[in-house]
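Quick one, tokens below. Sequence please?
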């Protein structure tokens, strides 16, 4: 696993034609200028009062109701294969198998939730889950049994349901085969490849969770009805869920099997403009906000608002299209590589060592041409911290400074000339119009590339939902901003690179695949020794640093800001997400 040498490439399968382009909103070209950092300036639709004139407001929501404002209300879909499940679990309408382990402490096993007990096969070929009894579905659809869990997991898993676009599809496909019912309350799930994180990632409520949907609903109402109607086992029922508008949840009218919600009603409003979200917090129209610009947090905290820290989220540039695997790391089947467009300077041809080195120099130049420290100061108000390679965070104790990279515009220009592009080239980068900090970061990095390297940069700005199918299908070929499933903190020994390998085919990816990453991921999941897993991951870090396939920008602290006049406390410990709504304790 030498970090400076690629594994010998195997013969590539016949390439598919490039996919037809889909219609997208107009892109933004970054103009030449003075060399100063260029950031987008949002046009406010509401002007908040000056902070100095605002006292901690009294809540305007009715007593027993909590109102949360978010940047984006996603689709409310009750059928997993149609991209259902994740949002309903996070907000408390559905439930998953396990609660997250505390990622900072190192355990890989989560707290049982709908699962009461579990038992791994001695040869790690499968796991048996014993379920809680007496768990009721909403609207009188009866008790949850193993049949419901089997249906839910298989409906979301592309190994069983190839059309599934559930958010957890890639993780499920990488780990599990078809789940089967053993008895009324026992489920057996075979592993396609054992993964030590099978609880804390694939079956937990804190990542991209798979809730339990009802076979009774399927049989009585049909799956077409399920797409538009969410029926789960959570402490809240869905009264309304309108994408890009609002979610209204009400407390179930009976004793919940685990814990009753402590509020009667939860309202989640789609407010894309950050200035409006801030204004609504200041006036008491909103009681909590997870999607607040970081610069707006300190003055609110000084005024008496409270904060629940949730860890962090890494922000990387994924150099999409570098698909270097030719066979699936688990099944051995030949792979199609639609995004391998080697005419693009940042995409290397694994069958041509000289082209691979040329593309590596390009990625290295572009990775060293933006100032991480300045981006942290400007875009996170100094609250974040620089990130150099994805999946390996410099705030973890195992970090080695050899993986850092400088801000070196002169060196970057030299590398670009060495690669054969002294006059630059045209490049696109995808931000994400529905996530402000990703879009702002794309705009800023584009400005650096234009000013420091003379590149003709086009920033693509549209909703992530439009872009996602191209990364699931491995057809994306432009760099894009994403965490690539990089929360902070994560135990250093956890196998890295699932979404950077063929193992996650069928689900989310960062449109990157490398044999060495896939092999290390598979090997790490079979390695019982923690230190050996650490050593294996250090070799992966060496690889990422040398080949620059996933280059870091910064880590964004994640938090919920809430009004203590409305919310006494909201304990999300152990979950890097806005979830655990049963733990919202009202202040009145």
């Amino acid at each position: 696993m030498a970090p400076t040498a690629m594994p010998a490439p195997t013969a590539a399968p016949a390439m598919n034609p490039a996919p037809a382009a889909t219609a997208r909103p107009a892109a933004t070209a970054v103009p030449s200028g003075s060399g100063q950092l260029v950031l987008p300036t949002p046009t406010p639709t509401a002007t908040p009062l000056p902070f100095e004139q605002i006292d901690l407001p009294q809540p305007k929501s009715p007593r027993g109701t909590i109102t949360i404002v978010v940047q984006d209300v996603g689709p409310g879909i009750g059928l997993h294969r149609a991209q259902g499940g994740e949002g309903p679990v996070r907000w408390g309408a559905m439930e998953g198998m396990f609660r997250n382990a505390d990622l900072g402490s190192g355990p890989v096993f989560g707290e049982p939730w709908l699962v009461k007990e579990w038992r791994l096969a001695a040869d790690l070929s499968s796991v048996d889950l014993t379920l809680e009894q007496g768990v009721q579905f909403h609207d009188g659809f009866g008790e949850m049994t193993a049949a419901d869990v089997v249906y839910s997991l298989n409906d979301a898993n592309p190994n069983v349901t190839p059309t599934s676009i559930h958010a957890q599809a890639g993780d499920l496909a990488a780990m599990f085969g078809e789940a089967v019912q053993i008895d009324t309350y026992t489920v057996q799930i075979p592993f396609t490849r054992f993964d030590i994180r099978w609880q804390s990632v694939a079956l937990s409520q804190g990542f991209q969770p798979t809730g339990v949907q009802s076979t009774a609903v399927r049989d009585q109402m049909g799956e077409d009805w399920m797409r538009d109607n969410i029926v789960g086992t959570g402490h809240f029922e869905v009264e309304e869920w309108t994408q890009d508008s609002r979610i209204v949840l009400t407390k179930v009218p009976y004793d919940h099997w685990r814990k009753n919600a402590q509020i009667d009603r939860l309202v989640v409003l789609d407010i894309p403009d950050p200035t409006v979200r801030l204004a609504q917090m200041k006036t008491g129209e909103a009681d909590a906000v997870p999607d607040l610009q970081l610069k707006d947090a300190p003055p609110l905290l000084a005024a008496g608002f409270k904060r629940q820290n949730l860890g962090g989220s890494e922000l990387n540039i994924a150099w999409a299209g570098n698909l270097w695997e030719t066979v699936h790391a688990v099944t051995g089947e030949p792979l199609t590589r639609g995004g391998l467009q080697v005419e693009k300077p940042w995409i290397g041809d694994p069958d041509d060592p000289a082209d691979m080195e040329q593309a590596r120099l390009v990625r290295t130049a572009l990775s060293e041409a933006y100032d991480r420290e300045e981006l942290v100061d400007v875009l996170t108000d100094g609250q974040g911290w620089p990130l150099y390679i994805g999946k390996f965070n410099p705030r973890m104790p195992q970090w080695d400074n050899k993986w850092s990279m400088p801000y070196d515009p002169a060196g970057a220009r030299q590398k670009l000339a060495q690669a054969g592009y002294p006059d630059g080239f045209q490049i696109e980068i995808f931000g994400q119009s529905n996530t402000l900090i990703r879009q702002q970061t794309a705009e800023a990095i584009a400005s650096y590339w234009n000013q420091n390297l003379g590149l003709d940069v086009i920033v693509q700005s549209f909703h992530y939902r439009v872009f996602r199918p191209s990364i699931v299908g491995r057809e994306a070929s432009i760099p894009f901003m994403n965490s690539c499933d990089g929360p902070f903190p994560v135990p250093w020994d956890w196998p890295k690179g699932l979404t950077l390998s063929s193992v996650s085919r069928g689900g989310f990816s960062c449109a990157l695949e490398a044999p060495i990453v896939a092999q290390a991921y598979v090997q790490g999941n079979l390695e019982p020794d923690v230190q050996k897993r650490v050593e294996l991951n250090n070799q992966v870090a060496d690889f990422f640093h040398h080949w620059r396939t996933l280059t870091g920008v910064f880590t964004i602290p994640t938090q919920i800001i809430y009004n203590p006049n409305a919310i006494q406390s909201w304990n999300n410990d152990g979950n890097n997400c806005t979830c655990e709504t049963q733990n919202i304790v009202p202040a009145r």
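Residues 1-51 have pLDDT under 50 and may be disordered. The longest strand covers residues 306-318.
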